[in-house]
Amino acid sequence: MPDLLAHVLAAYAVFRLAGLRWKWITRPYVTVGMVGSIVPDVMKVGILVDDSSIENLLGLPFSWFPLHTAGGVLVSCAIGGLLVESGERRRVFGLLVAGAGTHLLLDGLLRKPTGRSDPLLWPLTWYRPPTPGLYLSTEAWPTAAALVFAVAAWLVWRRYSKSDGGGGRGVD
Amino acid sequence: MQSWSLRAALIVLLVSVHILLFVSFSATYPSSSAPQYYPGAEEVSHDPDRYVGDRVSVYGRVVSTSPPVIDSGGREFGLVGGDGVRRDSGVGVYGVYREDGGIQVIDSVEYTQGGLTYSYAVSFLAGLWVLARLLRDWTPGRKGLGRRGDA
C-alpha cells in the first residue's frame, strides 16, 4: 500500500481479528505482526545509501530491492525470529512473515505506469504480476481506509473478546 | 537453541544470504527484452538509436512543464502527451521512445512533492507507533526478547 502507516494499520486490523480465531494472538503478537508489515520497507535504507554508491564501493552489482521481495523478507524474518526467546521463535517468525505478506500483497495493488507490479516473488520468479492500480504510495485515502478498517477491527475484537471472557481490556 | 554464540553465527549467515541476494538480484536482473521488462533511462541513454520506436519505462523528476521534461539521473526526456505534470514532482512514465529523444506517453504516474512529504511524515509516525508498542510488549532478557504480558 501506500505509506507505512497504512501498512501498519492494515496489519493491526488483520492480526487483531485473527486473535478472535487464534486466541494465542494477543497484544504482543499483534505487535509482532505490525513489525512484520514494516519489514519489506527496510529497503528504504536505499534512500540514505543508494545502490550505485554501494556498487562503486564493492565493485559488484548491487540492489537493496531484494529486501522488498519474498526471498529477502523470509531472510529478514528469520533474523527477527532469532532475536526472541526460543519458545517464541515459531510464532514470531510466522507472524513476521504474515505481516510482511500483507505488505507485499497491498503493494501489489499499487498503480504503476506499465500496469505491472514489481517482481515481489523473487527469487522464485521474475514475473511481474499485473496490478489493478488502485492507489499511489503518496495518496492519503488508502491510509484513511486502513484507519477505518483498524478501528472497526478493534471494535469487533473488543466486543467478541469480552463475550469470550478473554482480552478486551485496556486501551490496546 | 539457547546459545547466543550459535544464534549470532546464524544471524551472520543470514546477513550473508542477504548480501548474496543484493548482488545476485542486480547481476541477474532481466534484460529489457524479457517479457514485462522495459529499458530504463540508463539503457536508453547508452544507445538511443537502438530503442527508437520501443516501449520504455522511465522514472524522473519534472524539471520543466512547458514543454514537460523529466530528469532521470542527469538524463533529460521530453514528454509528448504528458501535460499537466507539476514541477518538482516525481513521475513514472511508460511510453514509446521517439527519434527526437522524447517519450510518447502511454501512461504515467505522478508523485507530487506534497504527497511525498505526507508519505514520509506519516511513515515516520507509523515507525514511532510500532516502536512504542514493541517497547511496551517485549523486553530484552538473557534468552532474547520475551513477552511482557498479554492483554
Detailed description of the structure:
The complex is a heterodimer of chains A (172) and B (151). Chain A has 172 residues and is mostly helical. Helices cover 56% and strands 0% of the residues of chain A. Chain A has seven helices and no strands. The longest helix of chain A has 23 residues. Chain A is globular and about 60 Å long. The two termini of chain A are 24 Å apart. The mean pLDDT of chain A is 93. With 151 residues, chain B is α+β, with helices and mostly antiparallel strands. Helices cover 39% and strands 31% of the residues of chain B. In chain B, the strands form two sheets. Chain B has a five-stranded mixed beta barrel. A two-stranded antiparallel ribbon of chain B has the order 6-7. The longest helix of chain B has 25 residues. Chain B is elongated and about 65 Å long. Chain B starts with a helix and ends with a strand. At the A-B interface, helix 1, helix 2, helix 4 and helix 5 of A face helix 1, strand 4, strand 5, helix 4 and strand 7 of B.
What is the fold's blueprint, element by element?
The complex is a heterodimer of chains A (172) and B (151).
Chain A: H1 4-21, H2 27-38, H3 45-48, H4 51-58, H5 70-82, H6 89-107, H7 141-163
Chain B: H1 4-27, H2 41-46, H3 48-51, E1 55-65, E2 68-72, E3 75-80, E4 90-97, E5 103-111, H4 113-137, E6 138-141, E7 144-147
Parallel strand pairs in B: 3-5
Antiparallel strand pairs in B: 1-2, 1-4, 2-3, 4-5, 6-7
Largest interface: A-B, 62 and 57 residues
Strand-pairing-aware structural class of chain B = alpha+beta
Helix content of chain B: 25-40%
Q: Overall mean pLDDT score of chain B?
A: 92
Distance between the termini of chain A: 24 Å
User: How many helices of chain B in DSSP terms?
Assistant: 4
Q: Give the class of chain A from helix and strand content and strand pairing.
A: mainly alpha
Name the helix and strand elements of chain B from N-terminus to C-terminus, one letter apiece: HHHEEEEEHEE
Strand order in the sheet with the most strands of chain B: 1-2-3-5-4
Strand content of chain A: under 5%
* Count, helices of chain A: 7
Largest beta sheet of chain A, briefly?
none
Number of strands of chain B: 7
Helical proportion of chain A, percent range: 55-70%
Average pLDDT for all residues of chain A: 93
